[in-house]
Amino acid sequence: MWKTVxxxxxxxxxxxxxxxxxxxxxxxxxxxxxxxxxxxxxxxxELELTDVNLHGTQISDVNxxxxxxxxxxxxxxxxxxxxxxGATFRNIVLPNENDHNFDLExxxxxxxxxxxxxxxxxxxxxxxxxxxxxxxxxxxxxxxxILVEDLLKIYNERN
Length: 159
Fold this sequence. Notes:
Blueprint: E1 10-13, E2 18-20, E3 28-33, E4 38-43, E5 48-50, E6 58-63, E7 68-70, E8 78-83, E9 88-90, E10 111-114, E11 122-124, E12 131-134, E13 142-143, E14 146-147, H1 148-158
Parallel strand pairs: 1-3, 2-4, 3-5, 4-6, 5-7, 6-8, 7-9, 8-10, 9-11, 10-12, 11-13
Antiparallel strand pairs: 13-14
């Protein structure tokens, strides 16, 4: 049975939080620290994350369709079995080789999208050079307004 609560957070540190089996549609996080948090088995459609620190956060088995994520730190983020259909990512910080995003053995850890539905997802003004995408649905995925299928065609023609 679902319990309904009113949640308003702004300029708040809620790092190391757990969101498990939560229904939180239309949730808006603005200027919130969610570093090292866990989202699992949750329905978070229409989620809006603005100026949010998600460093080291784990997201698995979550519906995040139509999420809007902007000005967010996604370094060391783990995303598994997440439905991101229609999501938009704008001006996000993804890890690069200079940002100390390493595991205990000093191996570089890129952001990974595994087994995710990225249908009609959009990445705008984002450096995607250090992400890994595996076993994901990429139909209609756009990077800076260009369909990923067109980008792959251009890449394959050049190589």
